[in-house]
Design goal:
Length: 512
């Protein structure tokens, strides 16, 4: 949590950090990823058989090596909009017998060469956990239960035996399962109403938890700010006594929300992810409201939020049907930094967040036949995933703020938009790490830092201006490392992201 006091732009900003005030544990799953059968994410992205850069499984080794740097805990699959017409049985068994199908979400052809077993093998090689999304469009409950049985079954049953026949003896133990994707949207095959969805999700959840009580089920929310979110939570968060006496387990473990932001103008673009912060706050309140109205015991686990699609994306600039290959600027990198600051600040409420997507499609990582390109947005993601883990700690910022138009427009009346956007953590290694995003396009800020105990390691992401990219054979935005003695004021460069890191001394510090 970071609090804010507005001061004049000509006053010296002050950032106060209390390393002893541990507020909430950060779930590592906020640094999760997402892969979808869309554009070049799968084919030519993580899977590229025949390329000299691929291993015997067809997995791109350079992509795996890069993604391992991020220590990604969970990867969502296979969509996304794609999943509304996806039938998982098409993608298992001998590859030469798998049917090619018309793909309606992104208007292509799905060969099914890469399917469940290939993805789960890729996850094992990467060292990450899978998160599957169920087909709530053309799919059936029987099909969903069969997929769970195929992945997790241990008995002498049909789909567990089919997995064994296909070469995998031991269960995969897939924990995370989403009850559909964006089923509210007119872009979806089998778009539905909130009433119909809530009824279906509740019934599917009952059956799935009977089959495997260890599953973590994710309800399909919208943006966290809508009547869809309220209604589905109200109808699906029920006391366990109201569900199945033979299986007294809460049916819904998480509630998903999605948000993409973008603006052609730098300041609305860089501050837009603050809308995600307000969305998390509203959705968290809706969870509490549903629990109160439905009389759920405080002893029952409280669902968390699953922000399982987020990024900077302009779907007109980078159309999905053409692969959605965004070219990211420094401005976009700063927006990603603000998104990640939001997730750290709201760690109490977040059980997972998945950047959409992991390779090529609106991604910080791009492939060519010869190698990979790390876009501008790669660097904030790397810094956060490496250092911003542990506990969210108390911080306060006093600085000036941006007062112009925001995107979305409603953000202006609901959140402050300070020039310096800050989050702070105390790592399990005893180090304080704070990220400061200076969104100002032309002004650096010499700032006073309170709570610095020792010499400071500094990581800076910036470039010559907010429009520079890394996509034309030149790395215009990269990571610079330096040191600061911790004395006096620190100057945060214009249009920059800075991570400051120092060893905490907690023995004399007030614990809030």
């Amino acid at each position: 949590m970071t609090t804010f006091t507005k001061i004049q732009d000509n006053e010296t900003p002050v950032i106060s950090v209390n390393a002893g005030a541990r507020l909430s544990k950060i779930n590592p799953n906020i640094y999760s990823g997402f892969t979808e059968h869309m554009g070049r994410c799968i084919y030519g992205g993580i899977y590229d058989p025949g390329n000299t850069l691929s291993d015997d499984n067809g997995f791109r080794k350079d992509v795996l090596e890069a993604l391992k740097e991020l220590d990604i805990p969970v990867v969502r699959y296979p969509g996304g909009n794609f999943v509304a017409t996806y039938h998982w049985l098409d993608g298992v068994g001998p590859k030469d017998q798998r049917p090619a199908r018309p793909e309606l979400a992104w208007l292509g052809t799905e060969t099914n060469e890469f399917g469940t077993d290939e993805f789960l093998k890729w996850c094992e090689v990467l060292g990450t956990e899978p998160y599957f999304c169920l087909n709530f469009g053309t799919g059936t409950l029987d099909e969903a239960m069969a997929w769970v049985e195929y992945c997790n079954g241990t008995g002498n049953t049909y789909y567990a035996n089919l997995r064994r026949k296909n070469g995998r003896q031991e269960p995969y133990n897939v924990k995370y399962w989403a009850l559909g994707n964006e089923t509210y949207g007119p872009w979806q095959v089998e778009q539905t109403t909130k009433e119909a969805y809530a009824h279906k999700a509740y019934q599917w959840a009952k059956a799935l938890k009977l089959l495997d009580p260890s599953l973590i089920l994710v309800l399909c929310g919208e943006t966290g700010t809508t009547s869809w979110d309220y209604y589905t939570l109200k109808e699906c968060l029920k006391p366990t006594r109201a569900t199945l006496n033979s299986n007294p387990t809460p049916l819904i473990d998480m509630h998903s929300i999605h948000m993409y932001t973008a603006s052609p103008n730098h300041l609305p673009n860089a501050t837009a992810p603050l809308a995600a912060e307000r969305a998390i706050e509203i959705a968290s309140s809706l969870i509490d409201l549903a629990r109160i109205e439905n009389g759920i015991s405080p002893d029952e686990p409280r669902p968390t939020l699953c922000f399982d699609e987020w990024n900077v994306w302009d779907p007109i600039r980078a159309e999905g049907r053409f692969g959605a290959e965004e070219t990211y600027t420094l401005s976009d990198a700063l927006a990603v930094g603000v998104f990640l600051n939001v997730f750290v600040r709201k760690s109490r409420d977040l059980g997972m967040a998945c950047i959409a997507q992991s390779v090529n499609v609106i991604s910080p990582l791009m492939t060519t036949k010869e190698g990979i390109v790390k876009q501008t947005t790669w660097w904030p993601l790397l810094l956060f995933s490496k250092y911003m883990r542990g506990w969210t700690i108390a911080a306060h910022v006093a600085c000036g703020s941006y007062e112009g138009e925001t995107s979305p427009a409603w953000l202006r009346s609901t959140k402050d938009t300070p020039w310096l956007d800050v989050s702070a953590v105390l790592g399990d290694d005893g180090y304080v790490n704070i990220v400061v995003v200076n969104v100002h396009e032309i002004q650096s800020f010499k700032s006073k830092l309170e709570g610095v105990d020792s010499s400071v390691q500094v990581f800076t992401v910036t470039g010559s201006d907010v429009t520079v990219t890394n996509m034309k054979g030149k790395e215009e935005v990269s990571l610079q490392e330096s040191k600061w003695d911790g004395n006096g004021e620190y100057e945060f460069p214009k249009h920059s992201l800075t991570l400051l890191r120092w060893k905490a001394r907690l023995e004399n510090r007030l614990v809030w």
